[in-house]
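Holo prediction. Input below; ligand is 6R9.
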Amino acid sequence: MSDETDESAVELEARLEEQERFEPPESFVEQANVTDEDIHETFAENWPDCWERAADLLSWDEAYDSVLEDGDAPFYEWFTGGSLNASYNCLDRHVEDGGKNRAAIKWEGELGETRTYTYGDLLNEVESFAAALRDLGVEEDDVVTLYLPMIPELPIAMLACARIGAPHSVVFAGFSADALATRMNSADSEYLVTCDGYYRRGDALNHKRKADEGLRGVDHDVQTVVVDRLGDELTHFLGNDAHDYDDLVDEHEGASVDPVSRDAEDMLFLMYTSGTTGQPKGVKHTTGGYLAYTAWTSHAVLDVEPEDTYWCAADIGWITGHSYIVYGPLALGTTTMMYEGTPDYPERDRLWELVERNRVDIFYTAPTAIRSFMKWGEQYPDRRDLSSLRLLGTVGEPINPRAWKWYYKHIGDENCPIVDTWWQTETGGMMVTTLPAINDAKPGAAGPALPGIDARIVDAEGERVDPGNAGYLTINNPWPGMLRTLYDNDDRFVDEYWTEYSDPDAVDRQLRDPHSSESEDADDWVYFPEDGAKIDEDGYITVLGRVDDVINVSFPEDGAKIDEDGYITVLGRVDDVINVSGHRLGTMEIESAIVGVPGVAEAAVVGGDHDVKGEAVYAYVITEDETEPNEDVRERIVAGIEDGIGPIARPEEVVFTPELPKTRSGKIMRRLLEDVASGNELGNTSTLRNPEVVEEIAEQVDASA
Ligand code: 6R9
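Structure of the complex:
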């Protein structure tokens, strides 16, 4: 463990000090979509009208009157008065423009079967399924939940919903039955599309059983459609009164369903994501702004063109798949690839074999995957012809320069620009990244903010930090792809994301520094003269400052640093969210799953450094007096987490302890638990009520490593 730890500390250091630059390859620049060197300036001068350039990539039924309405900030509205349909933009218009026979989706199943849908095929099936959904009773604005793995029926169902103006809520197939129930209840969703099962590493997983279990936790009636993915492998899948997807599509074969004209601000979909508190947040995205933004960023950053074969190797159950497997690429009329399985099945060159066979032009993945490829060795990509690649991208977490360079060399043959794209579920699309034909890449730094985005790094006082220093990433103006609210919870939307302050001196302790020991002991905080303030349940104080000339700033809860060229390096989350393999997990959600296990008294969950996953889940658990901490309890805890959230949250380690390290004011000192998990030198323990417990815990973790 200690060798790895040394290495990651060195790497972190290297990431911070990194100065190397990589120019865009000439061959790339010559053909790139966006090459206007002054685009950052022209967008800034012409803001917000600059966003017409994004809106122009779409076909509107009704032209918009105004680009931005900010009268009710932070409830901003984009392209108001305009109307359009997302499925029309992703399908019909390409068919009308002569693209009927161009491949829209190329799908590859884990066992090697392939399916290609042309734009014509895709439109037909989307219309049939849209007609079927209507027959089942789905009306405009009804939320339809899609609990499906990476099979073509998932984007088909999304587009069918979009066609009839029914927002979809996709629940990642790896999430548990409980997670499905929570999301369906929260969105009052009365329709579910799921499947019998799917393959993972060659095994058939029974997905329907999980869906049925979830449905038992839903507090209202639900109509269910089941896709038959496994054929004869699972024959008993159609229980009760569920509808068979194939039957429905056959019955509606040839149906023509006019795309419903949606107001630009009408909801396109909901996507639940982890936050600082237990309840997942239903992030609301709209039809006009979101589609314009994902189309624009696919065009400008990923350089997508209709004749490309483009592959984003993410899961559609996450925002990356929504924006950059489905909506962005299909709006531009390109060929988008989907792969059902894992990258090392049956062999560790599976992805590269797919790139070779399909002549993939653009490849977009997560750093955690790149670190796995690196660990497996370059012999796997080396045995394949990857010369079709023109651009590479990464998303989901910071990429360390070593992994960046490996990707550049062994996948891109030093001939493809890499875009390191920082963004979030809430931002809808990319926010901070280089433009591949314009900006040099600096490994480790995501890049400058995109044109039209005002990203700043500020300190705890809200002032811009000097280049080279770390602070909090803030976004200081709205953008078309932004979330509009949290479903049914406008107050939480304002509280969680927006802070009003009037002058740069306004002290905002919401911008807490997780690494400063003072902030652990909130009871010591002192009086701030002449300022209004509020305090939260953790004792954290938010000083609001004077309230004249208020501006709105959005806090994405990421720490970052900026260099003299304005390049931003994202350092990670400052809230209680762990990033495991690029997936956001709330520590509170995991803790509540653990304390739900009989015999458990208290739990603290933190993230620890992990070679491949970036971060891993570490759980520190106190059992009830009468419960002996043993293997049996450990297994129940792991099962509790898998049932409550899903296998993705499976802990790296469950550490039993008689006590948790606490400050004198009784707050759990998470920073120390993080240090233990990461194998770091332990920080200052002097403010602890029970300093001895940290050593005890550290010994246990070392012993099991
Ligand atoms: C798209 C997506 C968002 C969080 C975000 C940040 C981390 C994403 C990153 C990155 C450094 C990048 N993150 N991209 N950190 N560099 N290029 O991942 O959305 O699942 O909502 O996660 O992921 O911490 O705040 P989401």
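Residues 119-136 form the longest helix (18 residues). That is the main takeaway for now.
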